[in-house]
């Protein structure tokens, strides 16, 4: 029998999936804004972040309410606390998409991305979109095998991030310091976006298996 | 009368203060490693981060244990959940200090900091040290007036961060791209370090007053 408590847990799971959808849309559009120097798209990403923030606040209130009223223990308690952490990760991913959009806006009407780096940044955007979509599927399905795939996507993001730095440091950079600073920051934002998506997937694995991979540090920097 | 539950809360508060002490020591030594190109100090910062991570894990376990056994409501519940968020902020501050130390290590035996930027980065290190020390005092004293001071320190950090970028973008940068990338990342690490310290102080204010300043976004980027 379903009760109010399990309805609360189901609602939380649905809203976490919704957050992955919003974060995915945000990073996809931020990438477009960045590559096409599209101000309207950049502004829409910046404005839409409030929606993700609002869902996080609602989920936090719901979690506190469930903790206070239902006094859960064991798995239910772990699920609620872990959900709060997942929503914090997803909220941060929204921020990072917004940061990318802000770089696009700052450089408008110019593009922040030199032509030689467009392909790499396009790929970073695609990996970011893919990894957050998979994080949503992992939340919805609790599929541990799929969660492992996110690690590979994250490795791919790290590879692209290193490639971006190698291109920056290749000794031939005619685009000036401002572009170098922007690319450095944007690269970091994409890489952190993927880290948080992996963190979300790891938290689902933790809920399903009870195991947390200590050796893995989702907050580690992968800068050169 | 003190009971096991309130002893748990007191222990948590003490350990959060200890985390501010460790994060403060880490950022101070990371700044030294960076400015003096001191490899031994850099290595010690990188190794010591595990200590902060361990305290966070212990506090998380204690929090889950208190939630399950004591089934707290109202203020006690809010205190435990907020403490988990503070320890996450402080753990992240340790990571950021480690990231600074890793930049120092990567560039050894060279210094990652060109002579013209030493003064600015020294000041950023000092503000970081000061703001985390105040965060510790705020946790220990629950002094809301002191918490407001951290906002000013954060404004000072933002000013220094902008100054760093202005120096980078001044049109006269003879130090090469690698130094530019390092300085961009290091500037971001210090700025995020201060953001998380402000977040800790805000959470204490929230516990004391019940008010959260929505207008304030501790996770916002202050990049140019």
UniProtKB/TrEMBL annotation, chains A, B:
Residues 16-103, 121-204 form the PhoU domain. Keywords: Cytoplasm, Phosphate transport, Transport. SUPFAM superfamilies: PhoU-like. It comes from the Bacteria. Its main location: cytoplasm. PANTHER family: PHOSPHATE-SPECIFIC TRANSPORT SYSTEM ACCESSORY PROTEIN PHOU. NCBIfam families: phoU_full (TIGR02135). Plays a role in the regulation of phosphate uptake. This is Phosphate-specific transport system accessory protein PhoU. It comes from Angustibacter luteus.
């Amino acid at each position: 029998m379903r009760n109010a408590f399990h309805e609360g847990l189901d609602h939380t799971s649905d809203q976490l999936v919704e957050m992955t959808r919003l974060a995915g849309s945000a990073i996809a559009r931020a990438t477009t804004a960045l590559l096409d120097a599209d101000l309207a798209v950049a502004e829409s990403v910046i404005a839409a972040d409030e929606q993700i923030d609002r869902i996080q606040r609602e989920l936090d209130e719901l979690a506190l309410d469930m903790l206070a009223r239902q006094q859960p223990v064991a798995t239910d308690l772990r699920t609620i606390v872990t959900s709060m952490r997942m929503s914090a990760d997803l909220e941060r991913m929204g921020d990072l998409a917004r940061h990318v959009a802000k770089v696009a806006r700052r450089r408008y009407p110019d593009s922040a991305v030199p032509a030689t780096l467009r392909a790499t940044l396009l790929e970073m955007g695609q990996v970011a979109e893919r990894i957050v979509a998979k994080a949503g599927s992992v939340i919805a399905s609790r599929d541990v095998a799929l969660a492992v795939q996110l690690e590979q996507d994250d490795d791919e993001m790290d590879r692209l991030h290193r490639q971006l730095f190698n291109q920056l440091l290749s000794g031939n950079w005619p685009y000036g310091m401002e572009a170098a600073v922007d690319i450095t920051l944007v690269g970091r934002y994409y890489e952190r976006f993927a880290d948080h998506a992996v963190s979300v997937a790891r938290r689902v694995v933790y809920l399903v298996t009870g195991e947390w991979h200590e050796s893995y540090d989702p907050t580690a920097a992968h800068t050169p």
